[in-house]
Amino acid sequence: MSLLYNKSLKGSFFVDGDKSISHRAIMLGAIAEGITTIKGFLKGEDCLSTIQCFKDMGIKIIEENNIIKVYGNGLKGLKAPAKALYVGNSGTTIRLISGILASQDFSSTITGDNSILKRPMERIITPLSLMGANIHSNGYKAPITINGTSLNGIEYHMPIDSAQVKSCILLASLYANEKTTIIEKNKSRNHSEIMLRYFGANIKIDNNTITSSPIDKLIAKDIEVCGDISSASFFITAALITKNSHIIIKNVGINPTRIGFLEVLIKMGANIKFLNERYLNGEKIADIEVFSSKLKACDINGAIIPKMIDEIPLFALISSIANGNTIVKDASELKFKESNRIKTISTELNKLGANIIETEDGMIIEGNKNFIATKCNSHNDHRIAMTLAIASLVCQEPIILDDKSCINISFPNFFKILEEITY
Ligand code: S3P
What we know:
Elements: E1 10-14, H1 19-31, E2 33-39, H2 45-55, E3 60-64, E4 67-73, E5 85-86, H3 91-101, E6 107-111, H4 114-118, H5 122-130, E7 134-137, E8 144-147, E9 155-157, H6 163-173, E10 180-183, H7 191-198, E11 202-206, E12 209-213, E13 222-224, H8 229-241, E14 246-253, H9 260-267, E15 271-280, E16 283-291, H10 312-321, E17 326-328, H11 341-351, E18 356-359, E19 362-365, E20 375-376, H12 382-392, E21 400-401, H13 414-421
Parallel strand pairs: 1-14, 2-13, 5-6, 9-10, 20-21
Antiparallel strand pairs: 2-4, 3-4, 6-8, 7-8, 10-12, 11-12, 14-16, 15-16, 17-19, 18-19
The site of shikimate-3-phosphate (S3P) has 11 residues, from α6.
């Protein structure tokens, strides 16, 4: 398909619901007692996979007037699925659900699409096994089979910065006979901690140490999902790099563990303002106002990386345009996403005239580049496809993208919104 090109942005609008929060709302709703209602749920393919997995384990989940209702059946109320649970492309689903399945009274197998079959699962199998879980895998890759058993608490020093791993352990800890402590090197997104507390779990947080103590039950809640900052970031980037743009994105999550990209953009000189800051179910949200801006390069490494992990493809794009050169370090986790994003984003942006050199744990990005449209490849990765759609806005001709369907994974309304706000 030909992507929109040579455009500016204006207007005030909403983006689709937060992917991380939507997954967690279904999962906690399913194992809580009572009916959980979810407003603003992201109907992207990944979150729909989570719904299907819980339906396959006997949980009633319906939609009424755009509100999802999850009929929770208690911590141990899931039923053995008749066939393997299929998570599609969703790493969050397979990793988090494993924590819940480790202590059910049945065995289950979890599998997914070709990308899922390649992604590392040792990161969850190791801590779950330390808790006493019984797991078989295909050389630490999916499909994985979990034979439910009783679990003990652990003290776990996270070897990598990963919210999926942390959340998997936290979910398993709900079933353990004693407290579980997780120590993070750098803070990763904390939606699980916030939502678990909201549902009545006993979670204590002291800097990078999280302690979860045994509970009898979770209690169903009403949840309103805010806009996804990772989805908003595509339009934030677009408004910054195009001329005469001015947008306001309403109701977006600005959880401090998610806004590393915005913090860096502001250091680069971006004109971004948070309006109407407020809280929604324990999550900080705001309306985000963005004006076209001239940006200067800024290196990134260390603790900021997990706070902007999904936005690094966009960071590579914006750093190619900014004034000066940029070094990205400590980002080797990018190799284990839906695609190897160090490789895929460098390859695609270099086709457009960028000069990005891949390194072992990041990239070296030359700035002050102009993009020239050509044919590009999404590598079946939603965030690469959307980053290329934003790059096309600063080209004088359209980028031709091989496939846009992967965008439905996280942001089904992406093109509809893009068409409405470009002029
Ligand atoms: C997510 C955590 C991140 C992120 C993913 C969603 C989550 O993955 O990349 O899009 O919802 O917990 P890692 O924890 O593997 O870094």
